[in-house]
């Protein structure tokens, strides 16, 4: 299993890392070149939807189809949460008949609803635990 962690690199700045060698810069909205944690959550949702819909779209449109998935949602700062996230999959379906388009959209929505782990987690909620480990004596 891939291990994930963040390391503090400055005031409200972190670098997220994985044992697979990936890294992402995380920080406050006022810092250039970083994603906020909320932005990363939104990107994870959009990427998960894209990956979940890739097979049916590829099967119907070919391996080289192009798409952009946008995701938006303002934070409710009183509750410190995102009450609504809206995704939009932008794709050219002009080569399909209305019936083919309707069938493909149904298959795509089903695929995302059934295998997008991020979306399913956000929709259902999840238990999160937190602990502090004193590593001063190590």
Which regions are unreliable across 5 or more consecutive residues at pLDDT < 50? Answer: none
Strand content: 15-25%
Report the end-to-end length measured between terminal Cα atoms: 25 Å
**Tally of separate helices:** 3
Q: Based on Cα principal axes, name the global outline.
A: elongated
- Beta strand count: 5
Written description of the protein model:
The structure is a single chain. Helices cover 37% and strands 22% of the residues. The protein is α+β, with helices and mostly antiparallel strands. Strand 1 and strand 2 form a beta hairpin. The radius of gyration is 19 Å and the shape is elongated. The model has no long low-confidence stretch (mean pLDDT 96).
Topology:
Layout: E1 4-10, E2 13-18, E3 23-27, H1 37-61, E4 67-72, E5 86-91, H2 98-115, H3 117-124
Antiparallel strand pairs: 1-2, 2-3, 4-5
Helix pairs in contact: 1-2
Which keywords apply here?
single chain; alpha+beta; elongated
Report a brief summary of the structure:
The chain is an alpha+beta fold and 138 residues long.
């Amino acid at each position: 299993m891939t291990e994930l962690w963040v390391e503090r690199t400055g005031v409200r700045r972190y670098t997220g890392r994985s044992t697979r060698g990936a890294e992402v810069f995380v920080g406050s909205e006022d810092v250039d070149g970083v994603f906020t944690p909320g932005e990363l959550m939104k990107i994870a949702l959009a990427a998960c939807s894209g990956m979940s819909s890739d097979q049916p779209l590829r099967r119907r449109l070919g391996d080289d189809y192009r798409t952009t998935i946008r995701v938006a949602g303002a934070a409710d700062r009183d509750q410190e949460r995102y009450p609504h996230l809206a995704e939009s999959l932008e794709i050219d379906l002009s080569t399909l008949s209305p019936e083919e388009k309707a069938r493909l959209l149904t298959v795509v929505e089903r695929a995302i609803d059934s295998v997008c782990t991020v979306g399913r987690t956000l929709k259902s909620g999840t238990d999160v635990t937190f602990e502090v480990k004193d590593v001063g004596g190590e």
